[in-house]
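Reviewer 2 asked us to include a model.

Predict the structure of this chain.
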Amino acid sequence: MRLIPREILERIRASLLEAASHAYEEAGMQGLCAEGRWDAAIDAIRSVDLTLTADDSPKEPTPPAAHE
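Predicted model (structure tokens):
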């Protein structure tokens, strides 16, 4: 089984929390009730793109240059 690095998992969690929080607040400004705000937050979580690109992946440490 391949484990996912904690750094990636924490970034995923942060993205989900940010999306949910933003959607909840936006729905409140639009006058939705608590249930409607909750539904908006859940929809936002479902729509978060979880695809990682090469730029998003953790960087491997660069070994020190060999001195000749």
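The chain has two helices and no strands. The mean pLDDT is 83. We have added this to the supplementary material.
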